[in-house]
Specification:
7-stranded mixed beta sheet
Length: 416
């Protein structure tokens, strides 16, 4: 430990190179997969202002990155968030407290800087709970047997009020950022994206491994405004002389119901595709409901995705909207002392207020369970049944669920 040094890497080329290679190593890949082309591209385009590493001599043996982010809460309000990513510790340096030395000061600095919540995509479920994170959104990979679905393969894009047209990566790069911004401001759990994301997503930037060549399609409404975009690949598979490939989405964004339905119809009408895999789709996607036989769509994988770490509970609760009026006192327990306290939520027609209070608690839960409840992906009743929420006054869990009810589950399809 004496010889290990924690430092930022921004502005130091050698340290930045070591850090980028450390990320690759930390995710169990040989550094050779990081080509010279991609390395130089990242050094030129990837913001590294929040990147920090633990250095053992000139070798980076643990990595960590963070940056300001915008998170959409229930009702469309925006929270100042703090994204955490590129978290690795090389196998040779585990069990030395390196992650704690990187994570805890970063979370404290984020709170002092005005962030209401920290976010991350958790590779391993058991690691991040001890830092106060909890899973707040999930996704479902739907597998659709197109031939069994009963879907009309003679459907034509001419049936739409708008239009669906194939596009190349450059067209998507031009149209998608504004479309995505509208999408994420309408979707609880949505996050903002930077320019580098779209360069990588559309194959315009070098990546390891390379982004597979995809076909892109854009749905535009009758006024010509892009409202949905999808990338997909189709396997070249044949069965007894008949095409029977699988269409797989690489990304899918639809900012309204019409755009979503138009893109699903396109994917279900591909001549050579007998199956469709949706990737990280909404857990409550309407896809099965639009099929004549909904059983043709099987939820092959459902998993947590975006994790939240509350930093300012009053700000979080005051920002979101609620299904009805009411008051609840939450007691939030936080081992790191960043968000613990007792808070009175007063929700009304004109908005909500939340502040510390001396009133007795209605419900008590730790900060990770609060993260699961916040966007509505988990109910207070279910958390109580699991022993993750204590009901201090009779009927409090039911009152929380009435307040926190949402028409659609939160969703974040974006890796970071």
């Amino acid at each position: 430990m004496v010889d290990l040094e924690i430092r930022g890497v921004d502005g130091d080329r050698d340290a930045s190179v070591a850090w980028l290679r450390g990320v690759v190593t930390g995710f169990f890949k040989p550094t050779s997969v990081l080509s010279d082309e991609e390395l130089e591209y990242r050094l030129a385009h990837q913001p590294l202002g929040g990147a920090r590493g633990v250095f053992d001599g000139d070798r980076c043996v643990a990595t960590f990155d963070s940056w300001p982010q915008r998170l959409t809460t229930v009702g469309g309000a925006e929270l100042a968030a703090h994204a955490v990513s590129a978290v690795t510790v090389t196998a040779t340096h585990r069990r030395r407290g390196l992650l704690s030395r990187l994570m805890e000061p970063d979370l404290r600095a984020a709170k002092e800087g005005g962030a209401s919540v920290a976010t991350l995509i958790a590779a391993e479920h058991r690691i991040y709970g001890r830092f106060g994170f909890g899973p707040a959104t999930s996704f479902t990979n739907w597998k659709v047997d197109v031939h069994r679905s009963g879907f009309d393969r003679r459907w034509s894009p001419a049936d739409l009020d708008g239009s669906v047209r194939l596009a190349d990566g450059a067209e998507v790069r031009e149209a998608a950022p504004a479309l995505h911004e509208r999408f994420r401001t309408r979707t609880a759990g949505g996050i903002d994206r930077n320019a580098l994301f779209w360069e990588r997503m559309t194959g315009l930037a070098p990546t390891s491994p390379p982004v597979p060549p995809a076909t892109y399609a854009i749905y535009r409404d009758a006024a010509g405004v892009p409202r949905g975009v999808v990338g997909y690949v189709v396997d070249d598979e044949w069965t007894h002389g008949q095409p029977n490939g699988t269409a797989r989405t690489t990304f899918f964004y639809a900012e309204d119901d019409e755009a979503e339905l138009a893109l699903w119809r396109l994917l279900l009408s591909l001549d050579w595709a007998g199956r469709l895999e949706t990737g990280r789709a909404r857990p409550d996607s309407v896809l099965p409901l639009v099929l004549p036989d909904p059983r043709a769509a099987v939820a092959s994988q459902t998993a947590d995705f975006l994790w939240l770490r509350p930093l300012d509970v009053p700000a979080m609760l005051a920002a979101r909207s609620y299904a009805t009026e009411g008051e609840v006192v939450f007691e939030v327990r936080d081992a790191l002392g960043l968000a613990n306290g007792r808070f009175l939520l007063s929700a009304g027609k004109e908005g909500a207020e939340c502040a510390p209070t001396a009133r007795n608690a209605d419900v008590t839960l730790d900060v990770g369970a609060f993260a699961q409840l916040y966007l509505g992906d988990q109910s207070a009743a279910r958390l109580r049944s699991a022993g993750l929420l204590a009901e201090e006054t009779d009927g409090a869990a039911a009152r929380v669920d009435l307040l926190f009810h949402t028409g659609r589950r939160p969703w974040c399809p974006d890796m970071f």
